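Team,

Forwarding the record for the chain on the shared tracking sheet. I've put the sequence and predicted structure together so nobody has to dig through attachments.
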Amino acid sequence: MGLRHLADKDRGDPFGITSAAVALVDVHGLIRYWSRRAEELLGFPPDSVLGRPAASVLTIEDLPASPLAAAQRIGEGWEGLVTARHRAGHPVELAVRVCPLRAEQGSGWLAVACDVSDSRRWELDQAVVRGLLEESPLGIAVLDGELRFRWVNQVLAAMEGLPADLAASPTAVSAVPEQVPSAMDWQARQALISGRITPAVEHVPPPHGLSRRNAQDHLRLRSSFPLKDVDGKTLGVCHTAVDFTAKDRARERLALVNEAAQRIGTTLDLDRTVRELAEVLVPRLADFVAIDLFQGVLAAGELIPRPVTGGVLQRAAHLSVHEEVPEATVLIGEPTGYAPKSPQRRCLTTGRPILDPVLDHTTWWLADDPQRLAKIVSLGVHTHLVVPLRARGSTMGVVTLLRWENPSPFDEDDLLLVEELVARAAMCVDNARRFVREHNAALALQTSLLPPDLPDHCAVDVAYRYLPTDAEAGVGGDWFDVIPLSGARVALVVGDVVGHGIHAAASMGRLRAAVQTLADMDLPPDELLAHVDDLVLRLADEAEAATDGPVVIGATCVYAVYDPISRKLNVARAGHPTPAIAHLSEPVELPDIPAGPPLGLGGLPFESAEIELEEGSVVALYTDGLIEASDRDVDVGFERLCFALAHPDRPLEEICDTMVRILLPEHPHDDVAFLIARTRALPADHVASWEVPADPRAVHEARDKTARQLAAWGLEDAAFTTELIVSELITNAITHACGPIGLRLIHERTLICEVSDASNTSPHLRRARSTDEGGRGLFLVAQVAQRWGTRYTPTGKTIWTEQQLPSP
């Protein structure tokens, strides 16, 4: 650092107050101040000269006398060369600037001096800078950190067609950003970002009055580099440009290759990539170009690493010197249908380019293609060049170039150049194909992991939308689910795995399966999220041990359970946005659900909240991509969400369409998934419940009540099976559990029977031996019921069964 600062100082202004020798002489000619640099130049320490006459140091008797008398006068002072005496006795040549200091007693003098060699080097540096900026043919501009003009010389202003007053003064110019040409802006921005010199060669229009065909191509060499201060801080960018004529083809071809490297493959969009190749080739190398790809490439399919003999080619892009592209015989997206002996098919078979110097002598292959033959004859095409589009050993298509307006036929140099450009584009096309293939695979994986269709449930009517993001960002890990639970209840789930791509989709599938499994255990929402949190931690540890596995960085989730009998919604969330509830008679509500931590942090509790809903209310669960799409302003997103959910009596599909229209831009930056559910209430006469005494004699009474209730519901056909289930479950509760014992029957799309007790002992199936007196009850229940299970409550447990009812 010390050497760098010393070098910077040595190249600075030698008369700078911090680097020059400074002496102060009073009205009596006595030295009153002597700087350290003065001591270095003349060898006299301050204590040996302070208070002494200046004549004792200089070879002249009076400071403003002889040598300075002939010096150049500047204002009230002088500047010139003087000879001073070094302490060692030898003379020292100094460049001196002197100005008077006025006082009542007379005038003193302030003298600033430096070595003559430093002064002459500084003058030379200044002359070089002035020459480069004002006299040389090099165009120069200085831009600040916001890429606005601060200084422009006349040469660059003329090159770029800038306003004349922009370069009228060397002072700072506050120009609007639009005045910076796009090519200059792009290159200066790259230099500002990378901190390196960024040279580039581009073609510029020929001088006024010369047509494209009779004028030599003109090239412009641009270069931008960052400007930094002595501490390395970037102050802006210096941009230089020089025009020259491409007098030799090698220089022109090098410029075209350089331009192609910057223009082809700017995105991972396959259609855009082939279009960029066409724009580079026309009109610089061809009057017309057609790019045909195999349908498997356009569909991002797998490629065969060898030349091909068959396959359907499809027009991916074409471009002409004429705006209407009259040369094209097929439209973009249509099959091309080249004849078997055409140059295109021969090129694909051999994997080598084909150059037809004079097309008139080689039109035999067009005998079976009168449409193309008529086009070629009418245009007067004289040269035909076909090059295969190959990358990584696989042939993806063919590029066809034609010339007729350009009088020069294609030659071997053109063939080599086109091969180089097509090879560069082929790598970009293959990269785009691979990206689309991976994106489609991730999307297919994610779609397969999401529910193909939501179940029809008596507790809620549901609708949903899943909108994957664009191809640039990749597939995300959003998911949703509707899970039927016991007791006619239903679970509503929406979650989001951090990240994009196949790993995020795979992680989403694992978490969705875990939530479904835990939901079958009838865990409360807060307990379920705690178990999922543990799973995410375990998956993260496994992924860290095996780096090739899906990496679960974290996830968010909201889990809600709705009971149509009590009309209560029990909700817990893990780092997820709160649900929105649209009431029929009140404004849309964003309930204050306790915000648990995101899944994967561990060690923090989750809490749930219970909300009572009126029948017909609409509950909306969604990922953060929905509310953050509104210019990344969450508050605006919530306002638009409430507006979209207003009037919940509308059809659910209409509400979904309104949410998409109001909250989402045309191309969202993140995956979006949301689930909306309209609540239903089970009529009171569809539920019957009794308290059963812990007495074996109560089993018979419970069977009778069950039979009477089923008769009232018109379900006499299910009486025998239901009485058997009730008898066995109550008997087990009396024998193995403790009271109070409750019996509840629910009539919805299935017949649900529930027996509750105050014990936490979990029942399980077993195979009774032939000598056992009991142990067969639960086995019988499992045989006659469609589903059965156990859920735990704060006061004990409930064993439930479901029976399929005959269709009405």
